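ok so for the tutorial part 2 we go from a plain amino acid sequence to predicted structure tokens. step 1 is just haveing the sequence, like this:
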Amino acid sequence: MKDPYLKPVILGGLFITLLSIVFALGIFLWAIVGGYITVRLTNKITKQAISVVDGLLIGLFSGIIGGCCLNIITTFSFKSFDNKRLLIRTLEQNWPKEMYPIPEFQEMLPSIFLTTCVIIMIITTGFALIGGLIGVLVSKRTNKLSNS
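step 2 — the prediction. this is what the tokens look like for a chain of 148 residues:
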């Protein structure tokens, strides 16, 4: 059985991942665009109007895929000792002087990674939801204009 939502959701998630790797600070924008692209691709494949709930779910799943891929890449990139050392050194150098003593960052790394992964998932899913909603609204408007 062919699922018309699967390819667009995976492509949208990979779009979020790839552009977030290129320019990480744009993750908010990439997640919105990824959700939007997912809904537009689904609309073209199914050739049917997509409901708001379906658009939100499509955006949500593309955000989940994008966030999971980013988390996997982040975890693998910090498996190397050099990257861990760079992160710890950066944290030590930028630790506020008013908050002494400096904590043992080596022991804090698992909680830092967990927090980062949760934040990435919240950002990608939340903003991909917004992109999915925008995609549904634009698709409805485009369909109304083409039917007139």
